[in-house]
Amino acid sequence: MIGTVLFYIGAVLIFVGAICDLFGAIGLLRFPNFYVRLHAATVGAIGGAVVPLIGVALVAIGSDFLGSIKYVIAGASFVTAIIILIVAPTASHALAYAAHKSKAVKWEDKVCDHLEGMEK
Amino acid sequence: MSLEGVFVKLVIISVPIYMLAFIIYSIRLIKGPTIFDSVLAVDCLSFDLAAFIAMLAVYFKSAFLASSAIILALWAFLLDLYLAKYFVRREVGA
Question: What gap in Å lies between CA A97 and CA B50, rounded to an integer?
Fold first, then answer.
């Protein structure tokens, strides 16, 4: 009984993750420059990868058609979800720092840039 | 309807959405103005591919597919860190 409830919660999480993935992809295509695209990339990484992985873990632990390998799939999915939750903000922060430091991104309509005069 | 039938129907619904998202990420990967846009697209593509592989592991009832998702996520993180280190210091180093 509790397995069926976990299965349906996981199925809803997988569907929400697919919708978030599509929205993140559209934002990554349509936004004007690199620093704005970082927001859409966070939607695509956290909402599109962490949420479906937790959903897959719940589905695998609640399903009876998998046999004994359901614990392997659930554990691997949960570990991958935690790894992506730690790693994705670190990676995008390092990428934004490198892009501002190497002055590779030119963008118009600049409102303000507080780091502009800080470099030596 | 059994649970396996529900899961097969869920895969049939959500795989085209994932495929459309992968195609849009690939467009940004090819036409990105700077290299940072391309690397950001590869980053999102790898993380979402890890989730997709975990979903296929339940569909094909295979335990080996699920363990390869960890390697894929860590590889995308390594790519970002090496590229950021190269663009800050102009060398990769140790």
Answer: 26
Q: Does A37 touch chain B (CB under 8 A)?
A: yes
What pLDDT, in 10s, does the model give residues B51-82?
999 999 999 998 888 889 999 999 999 999 99
A82 touches chain B (CB under 8 A): no
Interface test with B, best of A15, A21, A69 (most B CBs within 10 A): A21
- Domain assignment present for residue B94? The answer is no
Q: Which residue of A has its CA nearest to B27?
A: A29
What is the distance between the alpha carbons of residues B34 and B29, in angstroms, rounded to a whole number? Answer: 10
What is the extent of the structural domain holding B56?
3-89
Tell whether B61 is covered by a domain. yes
Identify all chain B residues contacting A77, using CB atoms and an 8 Å cutoff: 54, 66, 69
Residues 6+ apart with CB under 8 A from B33: A34
